[in-house]
Amino acid sequence: MKHLPDQVLDRVADYFKVLSEPTRLRLLHLLHERERSVGELVEATATSQANVSKHLKVMLNAALVTRRPEGTRAIYAVADDTAFRLCNSVCERIADRIENEAEQFRAVTFLDN
Length: 113
What we know:
Helix content is 64%, strand content 12%. The protein is α+β, with helices and mostly antiparallel strands.
């Protein structure tokens, strides 16, 4: 088995940490639809400007989103679709587990008909 350097493992773990916050996933989903300003994201998420800005900064530092100035506003866009592919894989895995659990429950019989 190939040795994985600690620095590599730390970077991968940091990437997953960025994706482990539901608000960030909501913001990414909104940005996947189209570019948006902070104000549009605040309105769409019904959260504070400070909270949205904090999460955008984390995603910007992780290179998940880009930012460009437009007048007095900052416009954010998705920089990399990798997060969406990961989320799709995770959702498929969760759906498979739920379906398996449902089959197990359907197989249980408490009363004879």
